[in-house]
């Protein structure tokens, strides 16, 4: 196949001249900033080079490629994706919208750029630099020779199985060795992918040969290491899950039959592709650099094109990578163009993925968006779009309210779980809830507030095979930022398009309540199975049927079980609360007409005030026993005694 230019890029070049020049922009720099359409076209020369020189097309020409190539560029990812075109149709001033993905201020295709690199920033900001080096932000993109996992896991090389007792899955897929890879994306917590020496996303493996030698056959899929499958959801564990989750795959053949993506190796997934099927050809400029970014010190595009295909040249020319200082503070920070150390980019660039949604638009025309889903679970990077529809966001809370962006990871970043560095804890704002929770059982306290209010719900993958949302699992590696729990037997947080079956598909959404806020259902809150969930692990597996160390009667396999338990706590609390409110109301109405002495009235009013204060505390807590059943019931019992004693004195 002779390719000269991407069909998608060609379409972008046909855009009218008026949208390719931002003539109205006023800027102190010599060049006006690029708008969205210009950013799309900015890839043109890079695409032309890749289509002419990337070895995949030579493999295809020689009949050594299994899979059908799909070209994916910025036009597709930034303009066509997330229903932005549908949203733009209803906006008179917008010709196009990037709903799901956002580019940073600069891209790696800017030559020359003004980046100085994190080490230069660290010379004057050592405290922030020290924190940053310990964070996953600093390690989301690494060179092959920086992979400390080789020593940590005792590997021979990056093609060796990480967990040989349970899986043959390796950091790099079959036939792709370190010589042909510019960088590896990901950390030991969740997954690994790779960028090849042409900075193209690795959505393939090589059968019976090596990419670095141009031998063998390139095959779509089986390209990404996935830790949950390799280490935790082994075939044996899968069989346990399948005992109560009908259709859960217990073999690689089952895995291939259900989801449509498939794999050749248990623990390796076909990400951005399907095994021996769809072959996503996607340069890093089209997608990866949004979050797993890199910058080079090439003086010109000619130098850049000369280095493509040579991983070592690209690595030597890399001046910045990962979520480094300048990705947020701008190239050169305050040292260049008078930026003043501001924030040309922020957390939302990577952590606020939206989609335009017709159902959401019908429900509230002012908020016609929902979180981005790859399958039946909200994707990585949707934390901000979840928070956007919460009471916390309405009150002004943002990412940096709780998180220090320089040190988002409190524990060793090579761990399989994340403990975040928190600037604020829940109890700092929710004092009453903190008091009651501090008097709950040790099991609940071990998981912390996050254990129920921030369950690991999001996935980094498109696992149609294992996204059983009604059973709350099973490859959930991202904490939900919804917080609001809805006590309901049937209401579900995650739902398919109206009229569609509850099976993984496109178009799933996070449900909202009558106040247009998202909510968590009880199964995700209490009964989820998630092997990377720190709160669940600290809480002895909570109520997961697979991970829980509690008695089997407390292993929740469906939402009705959870509902029954919660209602059992809440009903007597609510009944006692209502009794107190009704009794105090009668006292308030009758105290002025009573013939009690002033001393007796004072005693009645004092008792009524104590009852009211306790009832107020229970109401403000809002959990009606779920934060601490015995303690809350004790508060209400005490309030009932005060109220009844006051009523008795008044002979009510």
TrEMBL record:
Transmembrane segments: none annotated. Residues 1-21 form the signal peptide. The keyword Metal-binding applies. Keywords: Heme, Iron, Metal-binding, Signal. Gene3D superfamilies: Flavocytochrome C3, Chain A (1.10.1130.10). The keyword Ubl conjugation does not apply. InterPro entries: Cyt_c-like_dom (IPR009056), Cyt_c7-like (IPR029467), Multihaem_cyt_sf (IPR036280), Multiheme_Cytochr_ET (IPR051829). Residues 99-249 form the Cytochrome c domain. This is Dissimilatory sulfite reductase SirA.
């Amino acid at each position: 196949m002779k390719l000269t230019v991407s069909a998608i890029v060609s379409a972008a070049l046909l855009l009218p001249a008026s949208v390719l020049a931002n003539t109205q922009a006023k800027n102190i720099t010599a060049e006006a900033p690029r708008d969205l359409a210009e950013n799309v076209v900015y890839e043109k020369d890079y695409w032309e080079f890749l289509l002419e020189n990337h070895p995949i097309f030579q493999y295809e020409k020689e009949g050594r490629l299994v899979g059908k190539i799909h070209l994916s560029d910025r036009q597709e990812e930034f303009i066509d994706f997330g229903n932005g075109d549908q949203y733009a149709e209803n906006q008179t001033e917008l010709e196009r919208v990037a709903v799901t993905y956002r580019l940073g201020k600069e891209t790696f295709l800017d030559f020359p750029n003004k980046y100085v690199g994190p080490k230069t920033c660290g010379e004057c900001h050592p405290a922030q630099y020290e924190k940053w080096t310990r964070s996953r932000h600093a390690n989301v993109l690494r060179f092959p020779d920086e992979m400390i996992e080789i020593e940590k896991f005792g590997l021979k090389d990056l093609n060796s199985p990480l967990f040989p007792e349970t899986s043959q899955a390796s950091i790099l897929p079959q036939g792709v060795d370190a010589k042909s890879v510019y960088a590896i994306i990901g950390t030991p917590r969740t997954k690994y992918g790779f960028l090849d020496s042409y900075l193209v996303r690795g959505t393939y493996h090589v059968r019976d040969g090596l990419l670095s030698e141009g031998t063998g056959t390139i095959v779509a899929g089986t390209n990404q290491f996935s830790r949950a499958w390799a280490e935790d959801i082994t075939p044996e564990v899968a069989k346990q899950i399948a005992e109560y989750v009908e259709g859960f795959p217990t073999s690689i053949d089952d895995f291939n039959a259900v989801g449509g993506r498939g794999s050749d190796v248990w623990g390796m997934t076909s990400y951005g592709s399907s095994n021996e099927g769809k072959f996503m050809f996607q340069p890093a400029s089209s997608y990866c650099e949004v979050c797993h970014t890199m910058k080079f010190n090439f003086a010109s595009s000619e130098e850049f094109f000369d280095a493509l295909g040579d991983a070592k040249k690209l690595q030597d020319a890399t001046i910045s990578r990962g979520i480094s200082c300048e990705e947020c503070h701008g190239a050169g920070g305050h040292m260049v163009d008078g930026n003043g150390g501001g924030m040309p980019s922020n957390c939302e660039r990577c952590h606020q993925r939206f989609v335009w949604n017709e159902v959401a638009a019908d429900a509230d025309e002012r908020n016609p968006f929902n979180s981005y889903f790859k399958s039946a679970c909200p994707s990585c990077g949707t934390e901000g779009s979840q928070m956007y529809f919460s009471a916390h966001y309405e009150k002004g809370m943002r990412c940096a309210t709780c998180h220090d962006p320089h040190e988002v990871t409190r524990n060793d970043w090579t761990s399989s779980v994340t403990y975040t560095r928190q600037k604020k804890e829940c109890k700092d704002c929710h004092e009453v809830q903190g008091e009651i929770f501090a008097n709950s059982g040790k099991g609940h306290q071990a998981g912390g507030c996050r254990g129920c209010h921030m369950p690991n719900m999001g996935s980094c993958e498109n696992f149609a095979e294992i996204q059983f949302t009604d059973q709350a699992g099973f490859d959930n590696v991202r904490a939900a930022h919804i917080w609001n729990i809805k006590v309901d037997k049937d209401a579900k947080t995650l739902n398919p398009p109206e009229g569609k079956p509850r099976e993984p598909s496109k178009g799933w959404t996070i449900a909202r309540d009558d106040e247009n806020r998202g909510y968590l259902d009880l199964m995700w809150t209490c009964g989820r199975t998630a092997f990377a969930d720190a709160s669940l692990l600290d809480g002895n597996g909570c109520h997961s049927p697979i991970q829980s160390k509690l008695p089997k009667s407390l292993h929740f396999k469906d939402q009705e079980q959870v509902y029954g338990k919660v209602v059992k706590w809440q009903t007597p609390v609510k009944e006692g609360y209502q009794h107190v409110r009704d009794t105090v109301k009668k006292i308030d109405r009758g105290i002025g007409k009573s013939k009690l002495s002033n001393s007796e009235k004072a005693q009645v009013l004092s008792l009524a005030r104590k009852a009211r204060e306790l009832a107020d505390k229970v109401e403000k807590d809002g959990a009606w026993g779920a934060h601490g059943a015995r303690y809350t019931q004790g508060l209400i019992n005490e309030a009932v005694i005060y109220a009844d004693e006051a009523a008795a004195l008044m002979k009510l």
